[in-house]
Amino acid sequence: MNKKTLYTLSIAAAVSMVFSMAALAEGNADKPLVWWNRQPSNSSTGELDMSALTWNDHTCYVGFDASQGADLQGRMIADYISDNIDTIDRNGDGIVGYVLAIGDIGHNDSIARTIGTRKALGTGVEAEGEIDPSPAETNVDGSALVVQDGEIGGLTVRELASHEMKNASGATWDAATAGSTIGTWTDSFGDQIDIIVSNNDGMGMAMFHAWSQAEGVPTFGYDANSDAVAAIADGYAGTISQRADVQAYLTLRVLRNALDGADPDTGIGTADEAGNVLSDTDYYYDEESRSYYALNLAVTSDNYEEFLDSTAVYAPVANQLSEDSSPVRNIWLDIYNASDNFLSSTYQPLLEKYDDLLNLNVEYVGGDGQTESNITNRLSDPNQYDAYAINLVKTDNAASYTALLE
Asked: 86: exposed, middle or buried (C-beta count within 10 Å: 0-12, 13-18, 19+)?
């Protein structure tokens, strides 16, 4: 090793030590924090938890535009009905019947997706100025109060049943529960089901494999997981890409910028030294809520081949940063449910690719999807990390984490 190399390594080590000492001096409460995927909010009203979103000067949220994506899913389903109006009513009863797998009745994303479907299909009922996202449970006769019959192309559209997919242990968005529930529904009113709608692909694919693929019943999901996108070739009707490639990049990029003392827009809306930059068709930033939102795209038989690899980094932000200007830093990042299909098979692999490009040493902690303590108990020494990326189990529980960092 020559003197120049030794000198360069010494400088890099010194810079890293200065950053670490500064982080300790400022205290954990001042370190960069990003909430991601599950926005701190009231699970009953959806009101944002601004105390969590403004916890310090380097706090923000990264997710996707839930309403825009939900509207896309709803329009995708409505368009499918219109395009197949002569064949969609399988039993010829004049009713396009659909069933809806609800992920988590208290989760903003699940609420938005349920509302988006009902709004597009005309089956929503307003409650206090908003469409009611409550499960209808069984509504074969159309008598449920939280939904109503819609109409598309002269056919009645009815939500035959909807249910929160929650298992006996309390985990929501549960694929196994969805797989067994479709069996219950089809035993009771199978020939009336013309469409399956799911708040995510994990549940959608469980119902697809359990029943709808063999029956040729179109199934719509959300997340653009690799298995779901591939299944479009086998009859899965469509899904929504919430741009995990953009979200994962933003999750780590905002921390990188804060740790470097860089302009927050570096490598996001403004190109960095390596040439990384996003466009306004990829995301937008809401200053009031300190939130970055990726913009969704519909994935159907027309374009699914473009989305087959859900873990491919996004080319405009795939350039390696220099350790001279962005030295290696330590990040603590949790995933609320290690069994969640989207987060484990799509989001985390993307994070693991971006952490290398952004020179971040990330410790990944997987939770059980049920209790905050399963995760917070493993943040026993916050001092060893330079920044934190938190994926909440329950959106109400941001204080469970910030209390550990005070």
From this structure: exposed
- The DSSP bridge pattern shows strands 59-64 and 291-294 to be parallel
Query: In CATH, which of 3.60.40.10, 2.60.120.260, 3.40.50.720, 3.40.50.2300 is domain 67-241?
Result: 3.40.50.2300
Q: Write out the two tokens for 29.
A: 């409460």
User: What is the residue type of 339?
Assistant: S
Closest CA to 390 of 365, 357, 355: 365
269's tokens: 């809306």
Coil, strand or helix: which one is 158? strand
Q: Which residues contact 70 (CB under 8 A, 6 or more apart)?
A: 112, 113, 114, 115, 116, 117
pLDDT tens column, 108-133: 889 999 999 999 999 999 988 899 99
Compute CA distances 334 → 191, 343, 372, 375, whole Å: 43, 11, 11, 7
pLDDT one-digit tens code per residue, 27-71: 899 999 999 999 999 887 879 999 999 999 999 999 999 899 999
pTM for the model stands at: 0.78
CA atoms of 333 and 350, how far apart (whole Å): 13
Distance separating alpha carbons of residues 276 and 63, to the nearest angstrom = 19
Nearest to 246 by CA among 286, 277, 200: 277
